[in-house]
Structure formats: C-alpha cells, structure tokens
C-alpha cells in the first residue's frame, strides 16, 4: 500500500464512543470512512447522513459490501469477540474499544484468531483503544519507573473514584450494568484503562484478593465499588480502589520504592527522593525511629503534546500503511488488564485469594450462572446524549 493511500475504515457501534470517534476520523487525511454500522437503524442512518458515508445494520453486511480494510469496534462488550474474530478471518485490521472481551476465555479466543489469521495475512494489525497510555503524566511515570529512580518497588496504591455515575446513566440502556448485556460493572466499563495502566506500569501480580460490592449504591446487578489487593513476585504490594458512587472523587496514585515516593494527584507529579536506600537504612540505621532525609521535587511534565483517541488511531493507521509498526497498545495486551478484572471478581465471589493465571473456565461458568439466574429488571430511560468529557478527570 502506498503511504499516501487512505485506509478504508468502517465504524461499528454508533453510540457515545462510536460517535466520538467519527468526529475525528472524518478529519483525518489518512482515513476514508466507507461505512458506519449499528443495529439501531436510526443511529446508523443519522451518522451516515452527517458524515456522507453509507449506513449498514449488521457488521457482516458491512464486511461484505463496503470494501473496508480496517474496522473500529465500539459496540457492547460481548460483541467485541465475535466481530473481531470475523474481521480477522477476512483479513480486516481491527482497532477495538476497551475491553478486549468480557472474560479471559473470550480474550484468548480473540488472540488465537488473530494469530491464526496472520498466517494468511502476515501484515494484519490488531490494536486496542488504551488512549490513557498517551497521557503525559502516565508516560512520565512509566519513564521514571523504567529509569529505576525508585529502585526496588515496595507499594503501589491507586485510589481512582472519579467515575461517578447516576442511576440515570445506568438506566439509559437495557444492556448497561447487567451480567447478560455488559458482563460487569465498574471493572468492565469504567476501569479497563486503569487496570491496563496498572499492569503496564507494574506488571501482573501473582496473587489477588478482591472485594466487590454488587449494586451497593445503584439499582444494578453488577459491581459499583471495588477494592483489589495485589501481591507481586518481587515483593511489591498493590491496592486498587474504585467506585462509581463518590463525588467529588479522587484520583491519587502513590508509588513507593526504596529510594522514595512518587505521588500523582491533581495533575501534579511529586517525587520525595531519599538520599539512600530505605532497605539499607532499615538494616543499618543506628536510630530506632528516625526517618531518612528526603527531597521534595515536583517533576516537570510536558503537557503540550498530542494525546487521546486520535493518537491511538493515527498509530494504528500508520502501522497499516507501513505494513507494521509500533502501536500505543497491541490488541493481545488487552488480556492483561482483563485478567486483573476477572481475578478481582472471582476472588470476591469465592471469598478467597486467587493466583494468576486464573481459571478462565471457572470464571466463564460463574458469569453464565449469573446470567441464567438473573431476575434483575430495570426501566430504560433514554437521556438523549452522553457527554464523555465528564467520564474521567
């Protein structure tokens, strides 16, 4: 493919996220939006008229008729798997909204289908929409950790409760906050980015204790308040605290290492740098309680750089045009954060610690049991539109 050729792309799922993606996709000179697809015909028709493209009402119809080379998937979560797999089998590049799937077994099926398809289509690209990896502060934290300034990591605590949602939000669609429609609550919908960032920064833990509260503050059948406790092979412990019920919420990350503490909060990154290793100080100090001298440093971060969904998509399109290349997040990486989510819930359901890798069959069976035994009913209230700018601060 010529570097100047536009990639023929289709968007499936014209809800809040799909509509948001279309706004910048139609401004990109490397993309030709050749189709939009939604099972709700009115949504597809409206988007097609607005962006002067063709409406489709099933992804199969779009695959058959539009001539697309790539697809951006923004449908409810269970359908990520089936649509991705069919696209791979046809040699269509995939950029999938988070999460990669609802449970790890479906994620494995997706990844296996991708690997098999690459035998026929070796330049096939699979990306996932983890745009929070592009945020300047997250990138700086990653840089500091990889640079080793903190030394051996001791603790990582992330309190992220800036996910407030009203009952109206949950009532705005019959699929929302149900086991059958969404497959989970805050861990499945709001926090895949946070879970991805956790594993991106610290790797996967070896053992997880999860505490998930089902419908504690909302009339829903899935989790709206969660605490996860993680133990890593290197001795580091992690805490992950999230909810959709706090306002004002907090977004505070503390990362403690032998050479001090890094704190990220309110768009400020502070490093309390100790003059020597705390591990050595514990062993050798002649003081019973004296603290190490530490220096307060506010880390400079260049916030004037491109971020967000468009950056992820631009990398994806460039990789297609170049026959390969770096992505913000390669699709198979999506299983890592999903593993954290499934493990937290499995631990909570069973009221015991879970070791990784988890038993995917056990979790899938539990999910099916929850779906089959559900007696949850809710009225659906259409709230018009959804402004995703309030989704996360």
Automatic annotation (TrEMBL):
Residues 8-120 form the Gfo/Idh/MocA-like oxidoreductase N-terminal domain. GO terms for molecular function: nucleotide binding. It comes from the Bacteria. Residues 139-262 form the GFO/IDH/MocA-like oxidoreductase domain. It holds the Pfam family GFO_IDH_MocA_C3. InterPro entries: Gfo/Idh/MocA-like_OxRdtase_N, Gfo/Idh/MocA_Oxidoreductase, GFO_IDH_MocA-like_dom, NAD(P)-bd_dom_sf. Gene3D superfamilies: Dihydrodipicolinate Reductase, domain 2, NAD(P)-binding Rossmann-like Domain. PANTHER family: D-GLUCOSIDE 3-DEHYDROGENASE (PTHR43249:SF1), UDP-N-ACETYL-2-AMINO-2-DEOXY-D-GLUCURONATE OXIDASE (PTHR43249). This is Gfo/Idh/MocA family oxidoreductase.
């Amino acid at each position: 493919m010529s570097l100047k050729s536009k990639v023929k792309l289709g968007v499936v799922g014209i809800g809040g996220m799909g509509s948001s993606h279309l706004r910048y996709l139609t401004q990109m000179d490397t993309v030709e939006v050749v189709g939009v697809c939604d099972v709700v015909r009115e949504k597809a028709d409206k988007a097609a008229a607005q962006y002067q493209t063709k409406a489709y009402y099933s992804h199969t119809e779009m695959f058959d008729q539009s001539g697309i080379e790539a697809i951006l998937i923004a449908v409810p979560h269970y359908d990520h798997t089936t649509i991705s797999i069919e696209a791979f089998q046809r040699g269509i590049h995939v950029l999938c909204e988070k999460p990669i799937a609802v449970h790890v077994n479906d994620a494995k099926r997706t990844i296996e289908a991708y690997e098999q398809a690459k035998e026929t289509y070796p330049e096939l690209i699979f990306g996932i929409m983890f745009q929070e990896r592009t945020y300047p502060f997250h990138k700086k934290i990653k840089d500091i950790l990889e640079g080793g300034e903190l030394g051996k990591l001791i603790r990582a605590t992330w309190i992220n409760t800036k996910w407030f949602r009203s009952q109206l939000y949950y009532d705005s669609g019959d699929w929302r906050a149900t086991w059958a429609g969404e497959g989970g609550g805050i861990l499945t919908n709001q926090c895949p980015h946070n879970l991805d960032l956790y594993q991106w920064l610290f790797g996967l833990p070896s053992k997880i204790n999860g505490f998930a509260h089902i419908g504690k503050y909302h009339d829903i059948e899935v989790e709206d308040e969660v605490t996860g406790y993680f133990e890593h092979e290197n001795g580091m412990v992690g805490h992950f605290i999230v909810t959709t019920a706090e306002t004002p919420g907090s977004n505070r990350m503390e990362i403690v290492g032998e050479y001090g503490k890094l704190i990220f909060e309110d768009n400020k990154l502070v490093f309390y740098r100790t003059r020597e290793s705390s591990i050595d100080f514990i062993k050798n100090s002649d003081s019973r309680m004296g603290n190490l001298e530490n220096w307060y440093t506010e880390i400079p971060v260049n916030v004037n750089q491109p971020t967000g969904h468009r950056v992820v998509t631009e990398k994806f399109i460039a990789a297609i045009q170049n026959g390969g290349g770096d992505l913000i997040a390669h699709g198979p990486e999506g299983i890592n954060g999903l593993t954290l989510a499934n493990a937290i819930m499995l631990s909570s359901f069973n009221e015991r610690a879970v070791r990784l890798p988890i038993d995917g069959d056990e979790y899938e069976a539990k999910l099916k049991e929850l779906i089959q035994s559900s007696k949850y009913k809710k009225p659906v209230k259409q709230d018009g539109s959804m402004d995703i700018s309030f989704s996360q601060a």
